[in-house]
Design brief:
10 helices; globular; disordered N terminus; mainly alpha
Length: about 270
């Protein structure tokens, strides 16, 4: 349960939380946070939450379209409202939740758990799309459903990136909201954070970073278009593609973090010698 976790700044600042309470963005963040949580959740509950998220996002998309906001920009804005509320566990809590594992075995388990979670989201989304494919009038809700699936998968992967940084001892400074920007940027670039490079730990979303985030979200959304198939073909494709993408991301980020940790150790050693 999130309330039992020792977290590392995942929660938004108190003032932000108070201002957003009761807003559609807050509801979206709450649902995505629940779906991104590790652990077994009954399929019926996942489907219910995904359906509720789809309904909320459909309303938001209509309002964004009415205001002239582009889909990519709107999607990025929604995700940035979600990101600071993604619960991130610290190293001690991670080890406790993963049967005392540490170091590489813990990272292995985190990657495996995240891949399973995104596979499940893809399978559920694909199954829902398959049902809608058989009923043409319901296809009108499909785009919002794909957005919902995209947001949940992105949240799971951002959570994975953040917690891998905990495992490898790569510290990201700042408040919850500031750290969220750094991890979202890392996800957009599909890389680990380099603590030796000031640009990689920036706490502000520049134009280039915003573009990278929009592009990454739209590519993820495009991948989920495969769920719009008859019968269960969408469910199978959605699950397999999500799992493969999450595994690939975990491998790249872990390689980056191993390299960054080695550079840090060497830098500290040279500093002591000097």
């Amino acid at each position: 349960m999130p309330s039992e976790n020792k977290q590392t700044g995942a929660e938004p600042d108190d003032s932000t939380a108070e201002e957003s309470a009761g807003t559609p963005e807050n509801e979206v963040a709450e649902i995505v946070g629940r779906l991104a949580e590790p652990g077994d959740m009954e399929g019926a509950e996942r489907r219910r939450l995904l359906g509720r998220l789809t309904t909320t996002l459909a309303d938001g998309a209509r309002k964004a379209k009415a205001s002239g906001t582009g889909r990519g920009r709107w999607l990025a804005d929604v995700f940035m409202a979600v990101a600071p509320r993604i619960p991130i566990r610290d190293l001690a809590t991670l080890s406790e939740h993963h049967h005392g594992l540490t170091a590489e075995p813990l990272a292995d388990d985190l990657a495996r758990t995240a891949s399973k979670a995104t596979m499940t989201v893809g399978a559920i989304g694909g199954a829902l799309a398959a049902a809608e494919f058989a009923a043409p009038p319901l296809l009108l809700s499909a785009p919002a459903q794909l957005v919902a699936e995209t947001l949940v998968v992105a949240a799971i992967e951002v959570k994975l990136i953040a917690e891998l940084h905990e495992v490898y001892g790569i510290a990201v400074p700042g408040t919850g909201s500031q750290r969220a920007v750094v991890y979202v940027t890392a996800w957009s670039r599909q890389r680990g954070v380099d603590p030796m490079s000031p640009g990689s730990v920036t706490v502000a979303l520049g134009a280039a970073t915003k573009t990278a985030l929009r592009n990454r979200l739209m590519r993820t959304l495009g991948r989920h278009l495969t769920t719009l198939g008859p019968f269960l073909t969408g469910a199978v494709a959605g699950g397999v593609l999500n799992r493969a993408a999450t595994r690939k991301l975990a491998g790249i980020v872990r390689a980056d973090l191993r390299a960054h940790r080695g550079i840090q150790v060497e830098s500290h050693r040279n500093a002591r010698i000097g």
